[in-house]
Amino acid sequence: MTFRTRTFLVLLTLIIIVEGTTFVAVLNATRSNFIEQGARELSLGRVIFDNAIDSRASELAVSVGVLASDFGFKGVVAAGDEATIRSALINHGSRINADLTFLVGRDGRVRASSRELPVLAFGSPFPFEALLATGRSRPEPARAVVSISDSAMQLVVAPVRAPDLVGWVAVGFAIDDVLAHRIQGLTNLQVSFVEVRRNDTRVLASTLAEGDRSGLASATTLADVVTEPRVIELGGQPMLGLRHHLSTGPDYNLDVVLGLPMEEVLAGYAPLRMKLIGIMILALALSAFGARLLARTVSQPLKGLAEAARRISRGNYRETVAVGSDDEIGTLAQAFNSMQQGIRNREEQIVFQAQHDALTGLPNRTLVNDRLHQSIRRSQRSGRPFSVLMLDLNGFKDINDTLGHATGDQVLVQVASRLERIGRDCDTVARLGGDEFLILLEDTDRSGARATAERLIDSIGATVAVQSMQIRAHISVGIACFPIHGQSAEEILRRADIAMYTAKDAEQYIAEYQVGQDEDHLRRLALVNDLRDALDRDELKLYYQPKMDLRTGTITAVEALVRWPHPVHGMIPPDEFVPLAEQSGYIRALTHAVLVKALSQVQRWRNDGLAMNISINLSALDLLDEKLPDIVEGLLSRYSLTGKVLTLEITESAVMKDTAYARGVMERLREQGIKLSIDDFGTGHASLAQLKRLPVDELKIDKSFVMDLPGSADDAAIVRSTIELGHNMGLSVTAEGVETDQSRNMLTEFHCDVIQGYLLSKPLPEDEFVTWMRGRHAGAVTPDQLALTHDDLEDTGARSLQSA
Fold this sequence. Notes:
Layout (H helix, E strand, L loop, with lengths): L2 H67 L1 H9 L2 H14 L4 E5 L5 E4 L15 H9 L4 E7 L2 E11 L3 E10 L2 H11 L2 E8 L2 E7 L3 H8 L12 E5 L2 E12 L4 E9 H4 L3 H19 L3 H23 L14 H28 L9 H18 L3 E9 L1 H8 L1 H18 L5 E6 L2 E6 L4 H15 L2 E4 L2 E4 L1 E9 L6 H17 L4 E3 L4 H20 L4 E9 L5 E12 L3 E3 L1 H11 L2 H21 L5 E5 L10 H11 L7 E6 H5 L2 H13 L3 E7 L6 H4 L6 E4 L1 H4 L6 H16 L3 E5 L4 H9 L4 E3 L9 H12 L5 H4 L3 H5 L10
Parallel strand pairs: 16-17, 19-21, 21-22, 22-23, 23-24, 24-25, 25-26
Antiparallel strand pairs: 1-2, 1-5, 3-4, 4-5, 6-7, 6-10, 8-9, 9-10, 11-13, 11-16, 12-13, 14-15, 18-19, 18-26, 19-20
Helix pairs in contact: 1-8, 1-9, 2-3, 2-16, 8-9, 9-10, 12-13, 13-14, 16-17, 18-19, 19-21
């Protein structure tokens, strides 16, 4: 063998050794990089998972916070009736799609639950005392992932204050396969929630197939998968897994296992390995022509690729691999660059989805909170104010109910588009949820915010074209400005929300937060509690205003008017406490109390020889109570009275809330001989077509048409026409607000049937009314009893359960 051959063989052998070693090293490094990338993807998935869970918990905390601050719910909790509380928990829980809702008393024991679970039985200790401790130390609702009755749940606990702490409302949202698949959509990982009790592992929810779930529960390597990814075997298939603790109980651990099949981890490894083999063969062929060419064309490029793989594994996606040729090395470099760009795009998409609304693409509540804090810091540095507009679509529920949610979604998209066109580049337009939007106006004071709100009204108030339909979308706008209306993001959001609901309640388009509205909120909350106590202690009083038959001049009936003499605030007008009773769920108790007082009074009068019928006003919500006719029938029987002694007065607006249902309740009352009267006629929106189908006996002309009757030709024409209309429909007509003899004479001329007003008497307590009647029968009614005083005119009369 010649030296040339030996040299060639030695050089070839050395090249083969070097090439082989390099090849194996590159393959190992590449495989390790793929695995490290998979591990990084798992770690990133864990971060996204935590963010998704936290974001979900924050959204749930907002819903629970709204529930805990709801007037009606606080009133029900303060009332203390377990059945009512449980009903309220079920109703409110279904509203926010909760799987479990329960109430914990101040003593830490369960008072009511929406589901009958042994661990949440009435009086049992609240099993998660640490959540209460957290709730006491922080203003926001406490939250945690827990295990309840072999189920994993996100539990949110918020204090219920009225105004002092009366308990804790806890709301649980199941962690199930739906949530697991939702998180899988964000992370592209297999997601499994497992519970470990005394070395017994059980899969609670997962994206895995059923067979793989049982394999995961029995995997012997699962115990080693804690904070660092490990390879586990499922059904003979390897998977890169990461186990992450969610919560720990006295005898269990609740974990999530994130998995990425090794087949996906190494999906790009096989093609890459084949390319490297081709490169090695090419390098061996070229090695015969020189080691320097081999080192230059193979070793250095491979070294660069290995460094690029390590750089990608560290999360550096900005620096691309230099493509110096169009051979296999160049192709491999291009593959690295494509893989790097794909990973970068996927991460950016995940971050965007976590901070934006899926329907409109606008920023969501999470991003709004972040930008609000940034705006506060900028404003504190620059001294320039900013404003927040809170918007809500009026009647959006009707659009969903009548036209469908798909149409509702299109309306929301178009509204969002119009809001973005009005907002400046520096402003933030966001959708907070449902039909609620927000605009963060940078460097904008109160006048600028109102001007923007007016432009919004003009823009949104125009019709929205959806599927060849023209839909009018009205909005209510609440305005809050930093720093005059709040010093924190939470205060600004809350007060903008208060202003928005003020606009809705006042049926206005725009309202700015006013100092003291928080106090009004607290006062209303206190009045709700006081009203409950007043009903329990029978503190409400009835006053009686007589009604005179114009044909005979006799007093045959009275109207019972409820009054609330508050020990601190004095006389609370009905137009303040009746809406509170309706909102808090006490209206039925209030109506029942008035019925009991009125009918028992009629019985006493009749026993004393005073035959007197009585009128009582009903709330709009009373007509939606199918039990009302049975309650009235029972009370009439208790006091040995017939239905003829009772007239129930109902406003037009009350009937219009649900005409068909109200008519059914009214017909059942009419069957008992009870007279039904349309109160405040002329001020509502009832059509004659609707009126003629209602089982009513009487029209009461509103006092606004009667009080200035002698001095207003228009009022006289309206009153005369109304009386003729009522008579033509077979109804009797009563005029209220009669204050002068001239008005009475005109009503007599118009053939009105009955009058009521201060000409006869102001509303009187029981004893004064009896004295007045006796004096009238004796012909000794004094001028003072008939005269109008300034105090009488100031006295709203507590006109009814509906209004003053």
